[in-house]
Amino acid sequence: MALKKGDKAPDFLLYDTDKKSVTLSDILGKKTVLAFFPGAFTGVCTKEMCIFRDNVAQFNDLGGSVYGISVDGPAANHGFAMHTSLNFPILSDFTREVSKKYCGLHDDFWGVKGYSVAKRSVFVIDEQGNISYAWITDNPGELPDIDAIRKAL
């Protein structure tokens, strides 16, 4: 079951593109934007992460930090972050456990049996670890509303 506004955000341990562990409890203390995306190097995901890249300074000015999360491994995420000049961390949920808890999965993605990816979703988590904004889409081609995220911050 997906999380919603008002829920307590579950802690997690994921790895960034440098293979360093990141936990939610380590990054709390300011507002946090978690942007789950299906896959690195795909058209819509590239567009979405570039939109976050281009807006990250405004999010920071509003007291928020941004983290992208995909089911791709740290090496693929590293290549993706370098290719798109991302200016925020990308975390790897290669076990898919965090995606299952937060937003759910697209199973048999692209018609590939057994291939599951995170549903495109965005969560804003307040300083105490509560979800103050939640957006999840079943349409992997849909992009989040950046203005709504700004307002949530």
Query: Could you give a short account of the major beta sheet?
Result: 5 strands, mixed
Full CATH superfamily name: Glutaredoxin
Give the rounded overall mean pLDDT.
96
Provide the CATH architecture: 3-Layer(aba) Sandwich
CATH class: Alpha Beta
N-to-C span? 24 Å
- CATH topology, by name, is Glutaredoxin
Q: Please, how many domains?
A: 1
Strand content: 15-25%
Could you name the ranges where pLDDT drops below 50 across 5 or more consecutive residues? none
Secondary structural class = alpha/beta
User: Helix amount, in percent?
Assistant: 25-40%
Number of DSSP helices?
5
Rg calculated over all Cα atoms: 14 Å
Helices and strands, in order, run as: EEHEHEHEHEEEEH
Count of DSSP E strands? 9
Strand arrangement across the biggest beta sheet: 5-4-3-8-9
